[in-house]
Amino acid sequence: MTTNPQATYPRLAMYIAGRWITAADRTHRVVNPATGETLGELPLANAGDLDAALQCAERGFRTWRATPVAERARVLQDAARLLRARVEQIATIATLEEGKTLAETRIETMACAALFDFYAEEAKRTYGRVLVRPAGTRSLVVHEPVGPVAAFAPWNFPVHNPGRKLGAPIAAGCSVILKPAEETPASAMAVVQALIDAGCPADVVQLVFGVPDEVSRHLLASPVIRKVSFTGSTAVGKHLLRLAADTVKRTTMELGGHAPVIVFDDCDLERTVETLAVGKARNAGQVCVSPTRFYVQDAIHDRFVAAFASRFGNTRIGNGLDGQTQMGPLANPRRVEAMGEIVADARRQGARIAGGGDGVDGPGNYWQPTILADVPITARVMNDEPFGPVAAIARFGSLDEAVEQANRLPFGLAAFAFTENARRANLIGDAIEAGMIGINTTGLAAADAPFGGVKQSGHGAEDGPEGLMACMVTKTIHQV
Ligand code: NAD
After folding, report:
1. Statement to judge: residues 221 and 135 lie in one domain
2. What average pLDDT does the chain have?
3. What family does the database annotate (predicted)?
């Protein structure tokens, strides 16, 4: 780490038509969530900027789709190498603007590089089909890139989210207009810079910031955009789906979750507590697959609550740049306010505070690691995604009861179960309505595995071959 990490923070800019644009009529102040200090002023796009980005994306798609896949793969592989070489600088920037620990931002930078490498290879295997037809005739099914993509990435994984929005479309032969969250612009700039330095043509990637609703309305109204990819809250996802309907654009929606955690009485208690405490602390719980609603079987309920409250409750919070810190601040003051409301509501409804439960004095958006026990089903925390360092615990008796609770909500992103019993693990894997299930683990993201949800958690997947196919359309050619 340099003696002055803030010195690594770049001048903020959009990237449109091959130029970094640092000046605009309107700007957004970017703040370090650990200290409240201003990091920079972010230029915001106007309608002219967005039109310029659309024109580039249209041009870029025409040339990029015709570019050999080997060249597209080379760009992604060189960008992955650059991300790895720049990991310390990028991780510092991401921690400054998002707050999570350096250990976490290093991991997500490496995960972004791994994703680029995966898609560089996967794009070469975009095989079609030859259908059985009478001699001398053919029917072919081919995959083609869908077209220019408008992609909206949130702030919670400032490096990996933009990487997810760029890797698969670029591999597939699409151009992309990326609008990352205005809270974490410099991390996205670093990902785009790696692609440019790797030789990605200027028209293929545009990076814009703005007033989110203005940008999405403008881009989604344009017939140039053929696909919308969004990660964020279910409410915003529904709004974008409605906008996309007018021009019938394809959509990938990675929306809110509310992950149930089923802790069976046969689990390895010590390992379960450790895994869940680390998983819950990750990015201070601001993760769409964060373990959230804990259902613990009667026989071990009290022991689990005591052990988890002691382990998670003692997570060291602080500035993410400090090597001793285990959990950073929340990304913005909105989240601190939300935690206050959620905890007050649970308390009012009879929940017991088994650890934490409050903010922290001084600058920065800190919230204590909070454990709520005996939480009634009606409490807000059991129904609305907390998106913060709050674990809500309730008890259950039978497997069926646990499944009923887990499937009760309209969300279905991630779910977790902890058990040493293979039959129980299988039954849970089959019965839970979720896009991803972790048995004895909270790690769900991998470059080669689809990441996405069911029900109101969204549709379509990122990562894995499925993420590439989501950037392609099929064409059937019958030839007699
Ligand atoms: P929010 O709903 O205001 O914004 C969520 C994200 O959507 C942000 O990145 C924002 O820039 C973007 N956004 C908002 N309105 C938009 C629009 N009209 N068009 C395009 N993009 C738009 O919430 P927030 O306060 O930033 O975050 C809190 C909530 O968002 C959480 O409760 C959580 O459910 C959700 N969230 C989910 C994820 C995820 O990984 N699924 C990530 C971040 C936030």
Report:
1. yes
2. 97
3. Belongs to the aldehyde dehydrogenase family.
What is the value of ipTM here, to two decimals?
A: 0.95
Distances (CA, A) of 44 to 26, 182, 214, 228: 6, 9, 11, 20
Is residue 441 domain-shared with residue 464, that is, in the same domain? no
Probe ligand 1: pick from 233, 282, 287, max atoms within 8 Å of CB?
A: 233
Cα(4) to ligand 1 centroid in Å equals 31
CATH number for the domain including 333?
Answer: 3.40.309.10
Number of domains the chain is built from: 2
What's the average model confidence in pLDDT over 110-127?
A: 97
Same domain, 190 and 326: no
Query: Alpha-carbon distance 291 to 276, whole Å?
Result: 7
Distance 101 CA to ligand 1 centre (A): 21
Assigned domain for 452 exists: no
> Residues 38, 154: one domain?
yes
d(CA 317, CA 368): 8
Read off the pLDDT of each residue in 376-391 and give the average, rounded to a whole number: 98
Q: 253 C-alpha to center of ligand 1: Å?
A: 12
Closest atom of ligand 1 to CA, residue 335: 25
Locate the ligand 1 atom nearest the alpha carbon of residue 255 and give its number.
Answer: 41
Active site residues per annotation: 254, 288
In this structure, the answer to whether residues 239 and 285 fall within a common structural domain is: no
Q: With b meaning 16 or more CB within 10 Å and e meaning fewer, what string describes 54-82?
A: bebbbbbbeebbeeeeeebbebbbbbbbb
Q: Residues 159-205: pLDDT tens digits?
A: 999 999 999 999 999 999 999 999 999 999 999 999 999 999 999 99
